[in-house]
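Exercise (ungraded).
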Amino acid sequence: MADQVIYAMYDDDDVLKDGAKKLVAKGVKVEEVFSPFPIHGIDPIIGVEQTRLGIFAFIYGLIGLTVATLGMRYFMVVDWPMNIGGKPNFTYLENILAFIPITFEFTVLCAAHGMAITYLLANRTIPGMKAQNPDPRTTDDRFVIELRTSQNTQFTADELESMVKGTGIVEFEQKTI
Amino acid sequence: MHKEAAIREPLILGHKTYHDVTEDVCKPIEDKAPRTWYILFGIALIIGLYGVGCILYLLGTGVGVWGLNKTIGWAWDITNFVWWVGIGHAGTLISAVLLLFRQKWRMAINRSAEAMTIFAVFMAGLFPLIHMGRLWLGYWVLPLPNQFGSLWVNFNSPLLWDVFAISTYLSVSLVFWYIGLIPDFATIRDRAKKPVSKKMYSILSFGWSGRAKHWNRFELVSLVLAGLATPLVFSVHSIVSFDFATSVIPGWHTTIFPPYFVAGAVFSGFAMVQTLMLVMRKAMKLEAYIHTKHVEYMNIVIMVTGSIVGTAYITELFISWYSGVEYEAYAFLNRATGPYWWAYAAMMTCNVVSPQLMWFRKLRRSLLFTFIISIVVNIGMWFERYVIIVTSIHRDYLPSSWSMHYPSHIDIGVYVGTIGLFFVFFLLFARYFPVLALNEVKSILKSSGESYKNAPDDHHPTPDPEPTPVAAAPVVEAPVEETKEDVSPAPEASTDNGDVNGSSALIDAIGASSAEHKSDLKKLSGVGPAFETALNNIGIWSFEQVSKMTKKEYDLMDEMTGKFPGKAEKEDWAAQAKELMNN
């Protein structure tokens, strides 16, 4: 059977949230929500899990910290112990104070950029990508719920349609993909 | 939904719907630029190019063209560097620190403040680069393997810390700013009609679609980047102050420098934000989003940081006497009473006295007064850096080396040139980028928007009086009449007038139509759902009708709808409608 995709459009984020709650309570699987701004509280309703990007940022930060520490130890202690006023850098630990600012900056640099790149890749938002929002108004003032018949096999398309229409939508669209 | 006390002043004035927010922010980008924009851009460009000319002359001739001498080896170059970095601090502070504190008023100003930060740090970065003299060897500041054997850069030096701090700060601010811009570029992309701008904005928006998962990541990324940027802001200016504080020059080697530089940076940065915002809100008609309350909040920040700076000045003076070090005491006495007393007096007046005036509610809510003070503060902060740098070194330990600093015309040209370049960048930003964080402003519309706040019922208050086309959402109408203060007239005027008087002349000219032949009038530029309803009310339903309109009909229509007079004519709806009919 051809997969049918249903787009239900709302003009208010709270109406959408209540609508999604009702649909999910009836056992409908909501595939996706498109909105012009983050709708707070929608994630647990439609089953979007909390992102793990924070953990990634922490790991990138640790990498930055390690690289900075090892790098400066090599440059300033191992390869060429710089002699300042007769006080050469013989151990990293004794001179660590001077290295803290750059260690900090480099940690932040790696964490921030690593996270940003991961974020863009995870979203697949890269220059040249095509937008996939179902209607151009979803970046303005419209909010869309996407349902698929293949994920809601316990309901017919008509049943889904009538359920969706009872949630205060403003526009309805059904497409075969 | 987050509720806010009704007693709090709303952050968004007037009866704005989500669509109005988009409209208000995107319109100035989509319309033709006003003549004043071209004039300002022209002036800024000429000044900027003059500055570039001075820099090229300097690079070709050598740093000797600056007014430096044997005693005063650092003057305007480093003064301007610190001044610009300081100005840059407000943007990150607004977007990062205020995000962590969940201050909603930041959302109206963060985008342009961050843009200001980035452009200011560009300008700051120029100075150390040209000050190297041989710009093409600038990469020597990086720890790269090189042909000189084990010759590494000196990681013990605050000047090198500066390299890392400034470049991290610049690149992280840029990323933070851009990640917030992506969804807003998507909004412009989806509205764009001209193929070139559509293409440009679709590249800039990276194919953003606004999926729930993406927003989930977006919010976390913003939060973590804010968490990273906050210590970064404080570290950057602390490190800038280390350039002086770790030296052995009386007047420089002061442990108070890091906190005092950071406070000074925030102080001057907010002043620059005020200068820019007060002009921008008027020029781009954003008075409903950036209004007296925002200005007042920023003035309070200016007052607090100004007081910290003032306390630091006085502490410095006291400690120089209390330390019992003669050199130290002399350095400060000389600042206040020596040949540079006027610079010291300017600094004290502008930075210590002027922010104290903000204790008066009337003054800190006065836009004109704020504008003047914001410029005064930045003049004062420039003098602060000049006083610290030049007066501390112009009296050497050897009286035979005592000297004065006179800037050469190249000094002045480079400095003024960076101001020109800064405005070139900022004007381009205001012309092509969304100056308000659309997605963030929309997310606070319900909790802090005027009409939602004053709505009688808090279930699904919507001020939008248009009838919902398909299934009626539980709509509770907000009271229509609200007292408006100094707000621009909200475009959402009454649409339910059903007024057909005089429409006969219009309909005669363009031909009658009805709901059956309804076209999607929203495709005409500047028409939203509410406007479409208004058009339908006066009998305009189809593109065919619109395509027959001329100046006379436009005027009749404007009179009847009472919305955006002159808009239809300027946008040439008739031509647009013809095109849409053929598609």
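Further reading is listed at the end of the chapter. For now, observe: Residues 53-123 of chain A form one domain. Chain A has a mean pLDDT of 84.
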